[in-house]
Amino acid sequence: MTNILNGLRSKKSPEHHRVDETFVDGPGIHRPGVVFVVSIAFIGVFTLWAAIAPDMLNTVMTNVTNWVTSTVGWSYLIVPLFCIGFLLYLACTRYGSIRLGKPEDRPEFSTWAWLAMILSAVMGIGLISYGVAEPISHFMAPPHALADPGTMDAAVRAMQYSFFDWGPHAWAIFGVFGLAIAWSTHRKGRSGLISAMLRPVLGKLVDGWFGKAVDIAAITATLFGTTTSLGLGSSVIDEGMNRIFGTPSGVGTQVVIIVVVTILFTLSALSGVHRGVKYISQTTTVLAIGLAIYVLFFGPTNFISNLFVRSLGQYFGDFLDTSLITPLTADDMQWMQWWTYFMMAWWLSWGAFVGVFLAKISKGRTIRQFVAGVLAVPSLVFFAWFTIFGGTAIKIDMDTNGAVSTATNENINNAFFAMLEGLPLVQITSIAAILLVALFFISGADANTYVLGMLSCKGTMFPRRPVLLVWGIMTGLCAVVLLLAGGLLALQQAALLSALPFTVIIALLGIALLKELRSDPQYQAMHPHIVEVAAVPGPITATPGTEHTGTVTTGTEQMVQSAGNNGGRTADH
Known about the structure:
Elements: E1 24-25, H1 34-52, H2 54-71, H3 75-92, H4 111-122, H5 125-129, H6 133-140, H7 152-166, H8 168-187, H9 199-202, H10 209-245, H11 251-271, H12 275-298, H13 301-317, H14 319-324, H15 330-338, H16 340-361, H17 367-399, H18 403-410, H19 415-420, H20 426-455, H21 465-498, H22 502-518, H23 521-526, E2 540-542, E3 552-554, H24 555-566
Parallel strand pairs: 1-2
Antiparallel strand pairs: 2-3
Helix pairs in contact: 1-2, 1-10, 1-21, 2-21, 3-8, 3-17, 3-22, 4-16, 4-17, 6-7, 6-17, 6-18, 7-8, 7-13, 7-17, 8-16, 8-17, 8-22, 10-11, 10-16, 10-20, 10-21, 11-20, 11-21, 12-20, 13-17, 15-16, 16-21, 20-21
């Protein structure tokens, strides 16, 4: 997403802003307030705790994680399913024809450009970290003992559950956040804060500490979601460099990688110059497509195509069963914590982050177009990605008596490179994979710094440089400390727990959005018996060097203009 925010960087800030009024924005207008201070204090105390007493922190987090997953873990399953149903309901009813913006607004991007930017939103580290590791792990130990390990049935189940973790359930979460943010900013003229969108349900509560608590929760979840990605990325780069160049491997190397990347993405965020990140995003997209095409045609093409069709049928045939399966044994619970519960929580933690990006590029789209573009197309592309890389790994594993699974058991970060070793040009493709992760690393973390600055400064599109510096440092520091304290498990537990409040918040977002859609003039025109309620004009952005009453442009227009100039990348799953 960083690339779409060229020129959107942070005078006097109104200390209290009612989110139901037109939001005035511009460089230097909004200073960091209570939300910023409390967020920094909370994350700082947590990080200090991890540094001073890591064993105690691990014990507490493990106990809390066990309690949460055993008592309300089912909420991580119900919420994504609710999001899918909610989006389909909006798309298939008369709500679907309502535009995200004024009725006369039209999309500023062609459909192809818009879909390309959506796909870039979550293409990131996770596609390398999990693109092979998840399918091959499920192939070795089929989820819930639904198949015998190492069989063709296990291969289908492996892809089915990979589709479950990376398909509509994930994108529906992003879709609800994106739709709510787009409606709130483009149609109602509010800031981009999560609390602002809850006014139809919570009323004046969003103006007080409750609203601030919601925004603090959004910041915390976004940061811990990012630190998890930093941990995954550093682990993959570390393992790849060790296999190719023989460099030392371990936590120390991973810490060095995180420190170097933190310096790079923080400098990028502070510079305000995103042309370079634009080119990085274009490079990663081309590199990712090229690598996928290479593996498809140099790998077991026929096996991949047949596995894709069969797994797709299995996924849709067992859709409800898979969506609602809960653990009944201790082994099942441990598996769910490592896979399903964590993955759904990870998406929730990224919801506000990705939602901001989706909202910015979707002004003028109808709700029906938005749902189709966000829910269907990315899911199919991700299904293809996991089948190409995961299916290739499974076929190589079946033909080599477990070469890939053995490497994965030794270190899960070996999985992607072990798969590439079964194909020609392994040195070149392995270097390409490392480069891809590094580029995803930088562009995604840069965007994270900006969004954290925005969320902690009253929703401004112009967070100040000192704020960006603080968030860049905090992100890297938190990732390093948690990695040293408990490794990847600690990062995953932090993401899972920080996402818990959003199992409630996202439901409130859906209710709030539905209430406002029913009172919208465009919907009322289709239902004359409903009393009309006027819409609020779009948010206002003060032109630099003018007063609030001077020349203004809408903040959303400026964001989308920036998007057109810079392409699009956000989160780095």
